[in-house]
Amino acid sequence: MAYALFFLIGFSFLAGSIADGVYGYLALAGLALIAPGSFAMISGVRRIFRFQRDFKWYRKTHPSKFVGGRVTCYSCGGDRINARSLMRGMYHREHFCTQCGTTLYYSPETV
Fold first, then answer.
1. Contacts (Cβ under 8 Å, ≥6 apart) of 80
2. Which residue ranges in the chain fall short of pLDDT 70?
3. Total-model pTM
4. CA 72/CA 79 separation, integer angstroms
5. Which among 89, 90, 71 has a CA at the least distance from the CA of 81?
6. Within 13 Å and on the Cβ side, how many CA atoms surround 52?
7. Exposure on the CB side of residue 79, measured as CA atoms within 13 A
8. At CB < 8 A and 24+ separation, what contacts does 54-59 make?
């Protein structure tokens, strides 16, 4: 949420410098604050969309990759699927093929 604060402060600096007709240090400070805020917002949106690739999504997208009630890899057809925890406070598990390393889907960690 801090990225939104950086973005708003930077935008106000930039807008203020444009309104005053001064394009010096205030405009540069505004751009310096907008850049990291924009990057954080874009990466946060990407993270949200990445975790929407869950088991239901995988089953709907690759229906032929369920053999005998087991999940198989859409890339190589391997049936050895493992899960690993994603760190950095994401609280999700990544399910991947052990044969080729392709990420298949994500699931939330349960406590």
1. 97, 98, 99
2. 1-9, 11, 13-14, 17-34, 37-50, 88-90, 111
3. 0.57
4. 4
5. 71
6. 7
7. 7
8. 54/105, 54/106, 54/107, 55/95, 55/105, 55/107, 57/105, 58/104, 58/105
For 89-105, what is each residue's pLDDT tens digit? 668 889 999 999 999 99
Complete DSSP assignment for 1-29: -HHHHHHHHHHHHHHHHHHHT--SHHHHH
pLDDT in the model for residue 86: 81
d(CA 73, CA 106): 14
Token pair for 45: 């949106």
Amino acid at 80: R
Burial 24-50 (b: 16+ CB within 10 A, else e): eebbeebeebbeebeebeeeeeeeeee
Structure tokens at 62: 């690759």
